[in-house]
Design a protein that fits this description.
6-stranded antiparallel beta sheet, 3 helices, 7-stranded mixed beta sheet, 24 strands, mainly beta, single chain
């Protein structure tokens, strides 16, 4: 099939130069009763053509041309059908009775499928389609497709039509035994099927010379849950483990690497199942994704640190994770006994200091 941009349920259209309509046959899309010659063996196909026959009507559109020879003699080199719908889009079937001269298709009939009004689709659009053209063999009562191509064709703003410049040669078309032109009448058809692609593409952009960020938060009156510290219910990711519906402390938001973050802190441990607690404090790093497009993630190398306020013997853990709506962190950061032991300097006058140090290494987006 060839592509070009030139353009000016089953639907049928009849094109006639006659003033009156002869009786219609029972065949859908036909308006003329004709006398058919006796069936005979079809003409051998030209070397470059393979004819495919079937009984079924084309699924979407039929165009009948009465007095085809008069149309060929007229100054009309191209005929565009009325609009028809297929796959949620409006289309036009265009016929060149004497061939598309721009494609050196003299002595052939050219046929094209065109989008009816591509300007209404905006600027960035793609329509992937599989389609086939047909001509009706009135002798054998078959719909014939000289060309069948199962390849997907892509319509877009720079290519709004596809077709076949040498659909059928005039010698084969005009031969009475072929059945395509009977009593100067012929019928063309087309069916169009839209290919919906459901694949997902991801794009990873690594950051050159990423900036290191550091933020410390002091949590006061830990034992009585100071009401000045925001309490929320979140989810924290610890490798394969998710902790849900646990009350946590959440620091005020801070900026780092052009994003908003907060530190999460479970001072009394977490429930690993419905009945038992794990006897460890949990710490996490949360990213504010309220302004993120769907699927965007950050690759973050981070260290979470519980500050030793007496001996500077800090306790820390680090990791590298893709962070989106689920924060990164550790459900077994430090044991409750170690955290509450005053000798370790983590909890001084009922207050602790947690520090987050991190680097954003890359960005993942979903296309």
């Amino acid at each position: 099939m060839e592509a070009s941009n030139e353009c000016s349920g089953l639907r049928t259209q009849s094109l006639s130069n006659e003033k009156s309509s002869p009786p219609s046959s029972s065949k859908p899309g036909f308006t003329q009763q004709v006398t058919l010659p006796e069936p005979s063996a079809p003409l051998p196909a030209p070397p470059h053509q393979t004819f495919h026959e079937r009984d079924d009507l084309p699924s979407h559109f039929l165009l009948k041309i009465v007095s085809f020879s008069e149309l060929s003699k007229a100054s009309i080199t191209k005929y565009c059908s009325s609009e028809f719908q297929a796959g949620g889009y409006k289309w036009i079937l265009s016929i060149y009775p004497t061939g598309d001269k721009n494609k050196d298709a003299q002595d052939h009939i050219s046929i094209y499928l065109e989008l009816a009004d591509p300007t209404k689709l905006g600027t960035c659009w793609n329509i992937n389609s599989i389609f086939n053209f047909f001509i009706f063999d009135q002798v054998r009562d078959k719909y014939v497709s000289p060309h069948q191509d199962a390849k997907v064709k892509r319509f877009h703003c720079m290519k709004t039509r596809w077709g076949i410049s040498k659909f059928i040669d005039h010698e084969t078309f005009n031969n009475p035994s072929s059945g395509y032109l009977v009593n100067d009448s012929c019928t063309f058809g087309v069916e169009v099927f839209i290919v919906k692609k459901t694949f997902k593409a991801e794009s990873i952009s690594m950051i050159r010379s990423p900036v290191s960020c550091k933020y410390s938060c002091k949590f006061d009156e830990v034992s009585i849950k100071n009401q000045e510290v925001h309490v929320s219910r979140v989810v924290i990711s610890t490798g394969r483990m998710l902790i849900t519906n646990q009350d946590v402390y959440e620091s005020k938001q801070f900026f780092g690497a052009d994003y908003k973050w907060s530190i999460l802190f479970w001072p009394n441990g977490i429930k690993e199942d419905a009945q038992s607690w794990n006897n460890y404090i949990a710490v996490g790093l949360k990213l504010d994704t309220s302004d993120f497009p769907p699927g965007k993630k950050l690759l973050v190398d981070y260290t979470l640190r519980m500050k030793d306020q007496i001996n500077n013997n800090h306790d820390e853990q680090n990791g590298t994770h893709w962070i989106l709506s689920v924060p990164a962190g550790f459900s077994q950061f430090t044991s409750l006994a170690k955290f509450r032991d005053s000798k370790n300097g983590f909890l001084v006058r009922d207050a602790c200091i947690i520090e987050a140090e991190f680097v954003v290494l890359g960005i993942l987006t979903v296309e």
